[in-house]
Design goal:
The chain has 286 residues and is α/β, with parallel strands linked by helices. 25% of the residues lie in helices and 25% in strands. Strand 10, helix 4 and strand 11 (180-184) form a beta-alpha-beta unit. The longest helix has 17 residues, at 21-37. The protein is globular and about 55 Å long. The N and C termini lie far apart (64 Å). 43% of the residues are buried.
Length: 286
C-alpha cells in the first residue's frame, strides 16, 4: 500500500501592492511562477492581494464569483491549472448584497478548480485612541462558516486576519483534524509589532498545527494609505518559526511535514488531556 504523502513545500508570497488591480494580478502571477519554479507545491497569497486595504478600493475592485469575466477569479483558475499547484488565494473583495462585500479566500487545486471558499468571519472593528480606528462592518458582511479543505497531504483550515484572535475557531478546526491553519492577513503598524507573530505562534502551539500568516508588503509609495505590517511567516506545531520576512516584497518557503503534527501530539498529548468535566465556571456564594 502506498504511504500517504505528508511532506511538501509551501511558497508564501508577500507581494508588492498597487492601486491598479491589473498590476496586483501581475505581481501575484510573477510571485506564483517564481515560487513554483523553486519547488512550491502550495502557494499562499496575502489578504486583499488584488486591491488596496481601503473601503474605496475594495468596493471598486470587488468581483462576483458568478461573473464569467471576473479577472482575478479567472487568473487564479488559469495559473493554478497551468502550473499544477494548489493556491490559497489570500483574499479578494467578493461582491455581496446591498452594496456590501465579503472578504473571501478562495482555494484552487492543481486542476484549476475552486475547492474551498471562506468568507472572513470576524470583522475588524477597533478604536485605539490616537493610533487607529477601523470599522470593517461599515462595508463588509461577515461569513458564517468555518472552512477546511482536503489535500493529498492532509486537511488544512482557513482564517483571515482578525480571525486569528479567536482561539475557539482554531480549536474547532484542530478538532476536525486540520494539520495546518492559514491566515492571510494585513495587520497594521500599531497591533502588528505586538500581536501578529505572537498570535500565529500561539495558535500553532494551542492546537499543535502549522500556522501560516501571509500579508502584502508595505505600500511605501503613499504613506496616507493603510500600511500593512507585512512580516509573513510560518510556524511549526511547537511554535518555532521556520520561515519569516519583514515588510518588503518577498517570497519565503517552508518545508512542511504533516507527520510532525502526529508525532508532536504523541510527545505532548495535551489535546487528549483536557478536563472537559470541570470546564465550567461556578459562582460561589459566601
Amino acid at each position: 500500500m502506498e504511504q500517504p504523502k505528508t511532506q511538501f513545500k509551501v511558497g508564501i508570497c508577500q507581494i508588492k501592492q498597487s492601486k491598479e488591480k491589473a498590476e496586483n494580478i501581475q505581481f501575484a502571477k510573477e510571485a506564483i511562477e517564481e515560487a513554483v519554479k523553486n519547488g512550491a507545491q502550495l502557494v499562499v497569497l496575502g489578504e486583499y492581494f488584488n486591491t488596496m486595504y481601503n473601503k474605496i478600493w475594495t468596493m471598486k475592485d470587488a468581483e462576483s464569483l458568478d461573473d464569467p469575466n471576473a479577472p482575478t477569479v479567472n487568473f487564479l483558475k488559469e495559473i493554478s491549472k497551468r502550473l499544477g499547484v494548489y493556491i490559497i488565494a489570500g483574499s479578494i473583495p467578493e461582491r455581496g448584497p446591498e452594496d456590501k462585500i465579503f472578504n473571501t479566500c478562495l482555494v484552487l487545486n492543481k486542476s484549476g478548480e475552486i475547492i474551498a471558499q471562506f468568507r472572513k468571519v470576524h470583522l475588524f472593528d477597533i478604536d485605539i485612541p490616537g493610533k487607529i480606528t477601523f470599522k470593517e462592518s461599515e462595508y463588509l458582511i461577515p461569513g458564517d462558516k468555518i472552512v477546511t479543505f482536503e489535500t493529498e497531504f492532509g486537511l488544512i483550515g482557513l482564517g483571515i486576519c482578525y480571525d486569528m484572535r479567536f482561539p475557539e475557531m482554531a480549536m474547532l478546526m484542530a478538532k476536525k483534524g486540520v494539520k495546518m491553519i492559514v491566515y492571510p492577513g494585513c495587520f497594521n503598524q500599531t497591533t502588528g509589532p505586538l500581536h501578529w507573530e505572537l498570535l500565529l505562534r500561539s495558535r500553532a502551539v494551542d492546537n499543535q498545527v502549522y500556522t501560516i500568516g501571509c500579508a502584502t508588503s508595505r505600500f511605501r509609495e503613499d504613506p496616507t494609505m493603510y500600511q500593512s505590517w507585512g512580516h509573513s511567516l510560518c510556524s511549526d506545531p511547537m511554535g518555532k518559526l521556520i520561515a519569516s520576512t519583514e515588510e518588503d516584497p518577498a517570497i519565503i518557503y517552508a518545508d512542511v511535514d504533516f507527520a510532525n503534527v502526529d508525532e508532536i501530539r504523541k510527545q505532548l498529548p495535551y489535546q487528549f488531556q483536557k478536563r472537559k468535566d470541570i470546564y465550567t465556571v461556578q459562582h460561589l456564594s459566601e
